[in-house]
Specification:
It is a single chain. The chain is mainly beta. It is about 15% helix and about 35% strand. It has three helices and twelve strands, in the order αβββββαβαββββββ. The longest helix has 12 residues. The termini are far apart.
Length: about 190
């Protein structure tokens, strides 16, 4: 492997960009579907850039490629849905991973499409109705910071993005000094 200073961001050429994309592909992360409305049309995309930003207030941070079909609708929206995907949600992840299966998205047996709220995935480990607080420019992507107004948790193993594919992760065993689990605040699972 080349030394760390072999490529600086200011001197990145096309080959360096491809090499850095490979580095990013090897960063394991959870995956989520971000949903919103585009006028009367439900929209959504899969992200692997989502992280919990803070507990007070309850915030997520995620990034969306500016060329993504849903980017502009999401940028214009006031609210979005966040569905954290579990090990059993691989097919849903694939529906939202690119444009090839866009026609299969938001089917009523898998999604609730309420008036006045973002689309809600009926599966997953957790979902949240979020207010979009800020959007920052980050080169090829926009960085979204959103605050959860309502959320629901269904514990289980996560779906993990790694090396341009998905892995199922097993829950870790509790460390010896871990004595208590506190339930997360839960929103109603009505309609799931």
């Amino acid at each position: 492997m080349a030394p760390y200073d072999a490529v600086s961001p200011s001197s990145m050429d096309a080959a360096s960009t491809v090499a850095f994309k490979e580095v990013l592909a090897h960063l394991a992360s959870g995956v989520a579907i971000i949903s919103c409305w585009d006028s009367q049309t439900p929209r959504g995309l899969l992200v692997s850039s989502i992280i919990g930003l803070s507990v007070e207030p309850p915030r997520f941070l995620f990034c969306v490629r500016k060329e993504a079909g849903c980017h502009d609708a999401l940028r214009s929206a006031r609210e979005c849905g966040v569905a954290l995907l579990g090990a059993t949600d691989r097919e849903e992840a694939l529906r939202f991973a690119g444009p090839a299966r866009a026609a299969e998205r938001h089917a009523p047996e898998r999604w609730r499409l309420p008036d006045g709220a973002p689309p809600v995935y009926r599966g997953g480990l957790a979902d949240a109705r979020c207010r979009i607080d800020s959007v920052a420019d980050a080169g090829t992507h926009s960085v979204f910071i959103v605050t959860a107004a309502e959320y629901r948790l269904t514990p289980g193993p996560p779906l993990v993005a790694w090396n341009r594919g998905f892995l199922n992760a097993e829950p870790p065993s509790a460390p010896a000094n871990f004595s208590e689990r506190r339930p997360a605040a839960q929103m109603s699972s009505k309609g799931r």
